[in-house]
Amino acid sequence: MSARNFIxxxxxxxxxxxxxxxxxxxxxxxxxxxxxxxxGPAAARLMLVGEQPGDQEDRQGHPFVGPAGQLLDQAxxxxxxDRDDAYITNTVKHFSFTxxxxxxxxxxxxxxxxxxxxxxxxxxxxxxxxxxIVCLGATAAQALISxxxxxxxxxxxxxxxxxxxxxxxxxxxxxxxxAPDAAARNRMTDELIADLRLAAARLx
Length: 204
Known about the structure:
By secondary structure, the protein is an alpha/beta fold. It has 8 helices and 6 strands. The strands form 2 sheets. A 4-stranded parallel beta sheet has the order 2-1-5-6, with helices on both faces. A two-stranded antiparallel ribbon has the order 3-4. The protein is globular, with a radius of gyration of 16 Å.
């Protein structure tokens, strides 16, 4: 089973969002609250792609509205990108988690779950036709650039892509939240901002 079984023939963002709400392309739909589809202008020049919804995204139904989203908003502001001008989405549309008492803890989606969901992302790219794509984290980079892509070695590289004029990958904001200490978090924050500044320059 895959998301391909649920993608409509007419592929606008509206029809895709409606169809994705009923997706059962992998088992994540069984426990998630809802599908969290991408949001932003249909003709956005920039697409930001994360890994999957988090706890708050799953509850609210919108991408990047939790702690990682707040960090992303600040980084975008720092480089002069208006979040409302970008299309923001995730590689996987349902929240993957494990329960720890009353808390739901992020669990990296499996390769099969990611592969099953990628057709939604491909359809979003086809509908929006962005000038550039920024992959936030390894899951998005491995889905859109190469399965061998490593953020620690290749982040910040401006690459050619069949999906857009250019594509680059950088840290997912949630990685900053998991940094082992303040020094590492500050370094990663600076790198995230530098990479987004590079993207902003290409858009001007």
